[in-house]
Amino acid sequence: MPNPCPACDGAEFQLLFNASDRLYNTTSKQFQVVECKRCRLLQLTPQPTPPELEQYYPKNYWFTPEMSTASRLKELYRRFVLLDHVRFVERAVRESGESGPVLDVGCGGGLFLSMLQNRGFRVMGLDFSLEAARVAWSLNHAPAICASLASAPFLPRSCAAVTMFHVLEHLYEPRQYLQSAHALLRPDGRLIIQVPNAACWQFLLLGAAWNGVDVPRHLYDFRPADLDRMLESGGFEVLRRKYFSLRDNPAGLATSLAPGLDPMARRIRQSKEGPRERLAKDLLYGALVVAALPFTALEAACRAGSTIMIEARKKKG
Ligand SMILES: [Zn+2]
């Protein structure tokens, strides 16, 4: 039996599909994605225990610094497609009128933080992975610590912004994280979250093959209405929504259609490839990402893009 729905305490669920780890093949265990009959929130069941869940994150999930020409090109690409995120946060902080650091929860190797830092922001990072926090410090010069948000040593009401890109869907207690963010934000500070959008066309068309459900790493799959409810009850009001991400949407569709070509999946599965095969697969994947652009842009223009980024602030009074 699934856990009671964390959003509405509902106890009745409808089975949507069975699935296993399609992308990284870390387990052959079967899971189900079910929908709450009362509020429609999607969740993974059975929920993995923390030690199980740890095994579903491959060791090199976060980052592998290399110095070849190909990886330097990839780094340039990653910087370019991250500009969307950087600009979204930049505008949010500017409009908030607040000063103070930007805290990135789930900061990974810290590339996003280093880009913000280059634009004059004070930054801090947080990640479950010690290795990720180490890379953020040493390679991207972004101060980062390894902790959960509730136990992180930051002053209450100190942050101009708290960002969580692709974090909430991985958590057992997403509400707790929103609560902690609420406590850390300055009065006009901004919360910025991004998650896969389970109300997107790709999910309708591809079902279990949509990479946004990422079984078994995503414990919940959110639609915009689920996020609105969760933010509202956590004391936030939504200011802005964006359904397109240059980094995530086209690549997400390419990976859904051809998981065997996804560069990260190939690296994690340690596929045996010669240099030519590797280059051919990289180019093919790149072409697929480019081909996915028009569809993903249209989907997003109709507010059904495969990710959603939200800016919210604390409710007044
Ligand atoms: Zn529910």
* Topology as a string of helices (H) and strands (E): EEEHHEHEHEEHEHEHEHHHE
Residue stretches low in confidence (pLDDT < 50, at least 5 long) are none
- Strand line-up of the largest beta sheet: 6-5-4-7-8-11-10
* End-to-end distance: 40 Å
> How does the overall form come out from the CA principal axes?
globular
Bound molecules: zinc ion
Mean pLDDT over all positions? 94
Portion of residues in beta strands equals 15-25%
Q: Which structural category fits the helices and strands?
A: alpha/beta
Q: Portion of residues in helices? A: 25-40%
**Number of DSSP strands?**
11
The biggest sheet amounts to:
7 strands, mixed
- Which radius of gyration do the C-alpha atoms yield? 19 Å
Number of helices: 10
Please give a structural write-up.
By secondary structure, the protein is of the alpha/beta class. The protein has ten helices and eleven strands. A seven-stranded mixed β-sheet has the order 6-5-4-7-8-11-10, sandwiched between helices. A four-stranded antiparallel β-sheet has the order 1-2-3-9, with no helix packed on it. The model has no long low-confidence stretch (mean pLDDT 94). Zinc ion binds at residues 5, 7-8, 10, 36, 38-39, 41.
